[in-house]
Write a structure and sequence with these properties.
By secondary structure, the chain is of the alpha/beta class. It has three domains: 217 residues, Rossmann fold (3-Layer(aba) Sandwich); 91 residues, Rossmann fold (3-Layer(aba) Sandwich), CATH 3.40.50; 78 residues, ACT domain (Alpha-Beta Plaits, 2-Layer Sandwich), CATH 3.30.70.260. The chain is 44% helix and 18% strand. It contains 16 helices and 14 strands. The strands form three sheets. It has a six-stranded mixed sheet with strand order 1-2-10-7-8-9, sandwiched between helices. A four-stranded parallel sheet has the order 5-4-3-6, sandwiched between helices. The longest helix is centred in the middle third of the chain and has 17 residues. The protein is globular and about 80 Å long. The N and C termini lie far apart (53 Å). Its cofactor is pyridoxal 5'-phosphate. It comes from Flexivirga oryzae. InterPro entries: ACT-like_dom_sf, ACT_dom, ACT_ThrD-II-like, Ser/Thr_Dehydratase, Thr_deHydtase_catblc, TrpB-like_PALP, TrpB-like_PALP_sf. It catalyses: L-threonine = 2-oxobutanoate + NH4(+). Pfam families: ACT, PALP.
Length: 405
């Protein structure tokens, strides 16, 4: 443990510095998740932390340790949103000026909240990595201190205070599941948890289409991804940090991935069953539990909900996506003769199968349609995968040729 870049003592010192700054977030038992997993599952609700995520822990720890001269020069950061808010809030609390570079298209609530904490925000680049280039240049040009989102000992130590809370709240914990972006959170939690309870199993989770850690661990060093495509902007990091990577390589037992469909299903599940609003990145840990990705799960299990900062428009799309993935929402396209009664007959069929019609769209002018044809797209609510398949089978049996949109 002494060879680790961050130790238990570092994390404990960070905890002392965060007194009266952060909230000790609740550890909530989830009966719904536990029943599906077959083991006791508790949710560490960092989505209820100040600024909506765990990021204030590391940002404040790092910035509170700056010298007076460094503080006078201000700080700069690059972030997709949560680190931005953590830095902006920490700067406000410490009386430091802050500038944050965020990718173009960053979620509006995260952008507005960052500005609300007093940071100057500039939108540049399409990814966090591109924004980071500008942040580093600003630091070089102005002398501002770069507050890295994950690749710094103080950041990792600050995030590790979440691990101290988990062990305090659930000393008997056997498995901790944590989402991974750059690696700061899981590295900090691993440093604290493994020092206090060496036999605890720590599992990292990445989005399938933004998973830099599996190839990096296989190679033995951080490897950059060539492309990423995930709704989980909070963990869309193309290159692991050197400091977190060294800790993850040594202390984390397993790193797994989860699909976009699983993320959306899990967000919907947490909203409906746990009454918790969680962003896609924050749902990753629960998603792998619900999907059965981890071969053997020994309870009690703690899954970290890392953040809850989500654009309501994205939430609406994800709810619909999650319902479709769960077989509870169906968009179907049917071609039929363009004559009176055709639409009424189709809708009657949906009613007979107890499917609730949400929206209907006509298309008469498509080049692929015959002059006497109409294309109807119907969006319906269904009751699950079995009901959806029954509905499609009933349509086919009546001579329709439905295409799932």
């Amino acid at each position: 443990m002494s060879t680790m870049p961050v130790t238990l003592q570092d994390v404990e010192l960070a905890r002392d510095g965060l007194t009266d700054v952060i909230r000790e977030t609740p550890l909530e038992y989830s009966r719904a998740v536990s029943e599906k997993v077959g083991a006791q599952v508790l949710l560490k609700c960092e989505n209820l932390q100040r600024a909506g995520s765990f990021k204030i822990r590391g940002a404040y720890t790092r910035m509170s340790r700056l010298s007076d001269d460094e503080k006078s020069r201000g700080v700069v950061a690059a972030s997709a949103g949560n680190h931005a808010q953590g830095v902006a809030l920490a700067a406000q609390l410490l009386g430091i000026t802050s500038k944050v570079y965020m990718p173009v298209g960053a979620p509006m609530p995260k952008l507005q909240a960052t500005r609300g904490y007093g940071a100057q925000v500039e939108l540049v680049g399409a990814t966090l990595d591109e924004s980071m280039v500008h942040a580093k240049q600003w630091a070089a040009d102005t002398g501002a201190v770069l507050i890295h989102p994950y690749d710094h000992r103080d950041i990792v130590a600050g995030q590790g205070t979440c691990g101290l809370e988990i062990l305090q709240q659930c000393p008997e914990v056997r498995t901790i599941v944590v989402n991974i972006g750059g690696g700061g959170l899981i590295a900090g939690i691993a440093c604290a948890a493994k020092a206090l309870k060496p036999d605890v199993r720590i599992v990292g989770v990445q989005a399938e289409q933004a998973a830099a850690y599996p190839p990096s661990l296989a190679a033995g060093h951080p490897v950059a991804l060539q492309r990423m495509a995930t709704m989980a902007d909070g963990i869309a990091v193309g290159l692991p940090g050197d400091i977190p990577f060294a800790i993850v390589e040594e202390l984390v037992d397993e790193v797994v991935t989860v699909s976009e469909e699983a993320l959306s299903r899990t967000m919907l599940f947490l909203l409906e069953r746990a009454k918790l609003v969680v962003e896609p990145a924050g749902a990753a840990g629960v998603a792998v539990l619900l999907e059965g990705v981890i071969a053997q799960v020994e309870g009690p299990v703690v899954a970290v909900l890392s953040g809850g900062n989500i654009d309501p428009l994205l939430m609406m799309r994800i709810i619909r996506h999650g319902m479709a993935a769960a077989g509870r929402y169906l968009s179907v396209v049917v071609r039929m003769p363009d004559r009176p009664g055709s639409l009424a007959g189709l809708l009657a069929k949906f009613a007979a199968e107890d499917a609730n019609v949400v929206e209907v769209r006509h298309a008469r002018s498509e080049a692929t349609l015959s002059v006497d044809e109409v294309e109807i797209e119907v969006e319906v609510e269904t009751k699950g995968v079995e009901h959806r398949e029954q509905l499609l089978a009933a349509l086919r049996a009546d001579g329709y040729q439905p295409t799932v949109a």
